[in-house]
Amino acid sequence: MTDPVELTKKLVKIESCNPGVEEGRLGDYIYERLETRGVPVRKQQVLPGRFNIIAKIEGNSQKPPLVMICHMDTVVVGDGWTAAPFAAEEKNGRIYGRGACDMKSGFACALSSFEELWEEGTKPERTIYFIATVDEEADMNGIQAVLREGLIPEGSLMMDLEPTGLAVSVCHKGRIWYHVQVQGVTAHASTPWKGVDAIAAAAEFISEIRGLITSLPEHPEMGATTVTFGQISGGYQPYVVPDLCKITLDIRTVPPYGEKDIEALMIKAKSRAEARFTGIRLSWECTGNRPYVYGISDSELCTALFEAYRKVCGQDAKLELFPGYTDTAVAAVALNNYNCVSFGPGRLEMAHKPNEYVEIEQIILCKRILKSTINRLCFHEK
Q1: Whole-model pTM?
Q2: Is the pLDDT assigned to residue 278 strictly greater than 90?
């Protein structure tokens, strides 16, 4: 039996920051673990020096396979830590370290369960895949490589072990990214009427698009569409009217709003800003569009997971929105297969923060619930 707590510590101690050292050392470690056990496993090249891990336990039937997807990369360390980010320190029932929550503890639960199923030697009723991806924390090139190669069969039961606090999550907000450029006219600050202030015009646009988006009706289960202005730059000196301003937008969408709806709001905000600031030119590029996912809460996969949770915990699991975007969400949209779920240890609000941690009790419970779910789906456990 593989202890998921100790495995979490091992994974945290292998740095895999993206950008940074990336996933190579961690990928080699996982590959060698599986290959040593005789598991059919291979590396799938994605980017130079970066590869996914694809492993499979062949099943007895043609039932849709179970696919567990976990990402190997973490965000950068950042400032503000008091704990050592790669020491995997255990303290007060928690493991601290970059990736402890997102998502090396969930990764450890999936990998240890997969290894145990292989070592037990009983052929499952359906094929079980374990897929470890690169680049989830950036452009999601890992899962896209998996999809391009057709490695997830039609109708698969897809599961990731992202930090949901052991809530069952089948819905993900959409994510649309824009790079906006506002072109004005430069002039001396003593004669500002001879120019057009690009930063002031950008502020007008920001105010307009924020107002339009926040006025959209909320979804009863998935909440509100939101906008974040993550970056802004412009200007040269205090005494120069700026002729250029650049902004990035991160918009998280809920049903029924998609890219066309948001694009219409962008055009409306642009028109209002241009009317207020004669002479500006406002343009943008959509740099990412991930549609929202509204999954199936009574699917075969979710039903097995709810039953397993009830058996292990003695109560019903919570069904909650996962506000982030995951590899499984990308696959669901690409394959038009919404038989997917996110379920894992750790609270999402601890992800990406200094002193990131995961509660050990949640790791232990997650492993037990996951094994029971797999047994129900693949080995006729009741």
Answers
A1: 0.91
A2: yes
